[in-house]
Amino acid sequence: QVQLVESGGGLVQPGGSLRLSCAASGSILDINTMGWYRQAPGKQRELVAVITSGGTSNYVDSVEGRFTISRDNAKNTVYLQMNSLKPEDTAVYYCNAHVRSYGRGWFNLWGQGTQVTVSS
Hints:
- The protein is mainly beta.
- The chain contains no helices and eleven strands.
- The protein is elongated and about 50 Å long.
């Protein structure tokens, strides 16, 4: 079974930092793009940041300069370093990966989500 397991969410004050991690496990042959999405209450899920297997990254405008996405291909893990957090960053953050596994080919995989709350 192929799965993504996230960690690192929590409660932080405005201006603080958090680092999210997401590890892929199971019968994985290859991982292409990995990324982070978020969904705030009453809003649609939005793309936060994405990174290719070669390390090229893109961000939504609202987090540009504050968040950094990175990955360790040897560990099948993607990270999201979040600095200068704002209350509007409060959301459930989901990891996503485009994965190729034994007997299944390429497919889109989601993590279970981790809550990030920015509040004083």
